[in-house]
């Protein structure tokens, strides 16, 4: 697989390019949530003046035991997917930096990056669309697989930087 990626992206450093791409992927569920809130009038539409309060009101409604609509639940899952992506980004950025500091081959870095990006896409989709506890375990599995590229890069770095 590494050779295929090298042929598709010769001399291209896609892991560095993945840093802004990962931020974009993290923001997509947020933008989707805004679209849903605005187009369906949830709580009067998205509050861009105080978006955290908008989300907090939905969370408070859920926390008070009131049933959220499917749409409100989707909006909250979109916001959670965004938050997870932004929380995970520094780990990925550190892995990319350590990968280059420890001279992980470009082809390997590209391979790990494609796994990372594809898992983040699948994870976001599952986060936003998963409605049942049982189905949420698939999302958890995908998240665990998404850890693999960064962990392998850190292991490479630990071996090279002794």
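Q: What amino acid sequence fits the structure above?
A:
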């Amino acid at each position: 697989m590494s050779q295929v990626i090298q042929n598709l992206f010769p001399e291209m450093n896609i892991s560095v390019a993945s840093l802004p791409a990962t931020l974009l992927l993290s923001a997509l569920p947020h933008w989707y949530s805004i679209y849903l809130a605005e187009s369906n009038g949830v709580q009067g539409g998205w509050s861009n003046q105080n978006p955290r309060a908008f989300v907090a009101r939905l969370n408070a409604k859920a926390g008070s035991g009131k049933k959220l609509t499917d749409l409100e639940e989707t909006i909250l899952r979109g916001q959670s997917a965004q938050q997870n992506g932004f929380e995970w980004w520094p780990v990925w950025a550190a892995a990319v930096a350590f990968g280059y500091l420890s001279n992980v081959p470009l082809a390997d870095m590209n391979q790990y990056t494609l796994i990372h990006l594809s898992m983040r896409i699948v994870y976001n989709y599952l986060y936003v669309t998963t409605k049942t506890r049982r189905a949420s375990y698939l999302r958890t599995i995908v998240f665990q697989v998404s850890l693999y590229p960064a962990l392998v890069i850190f292991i490479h770095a630990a071996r090279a930087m002794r």
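Q: And what stands out in the fold?
A: The mean pLDDT is 91.
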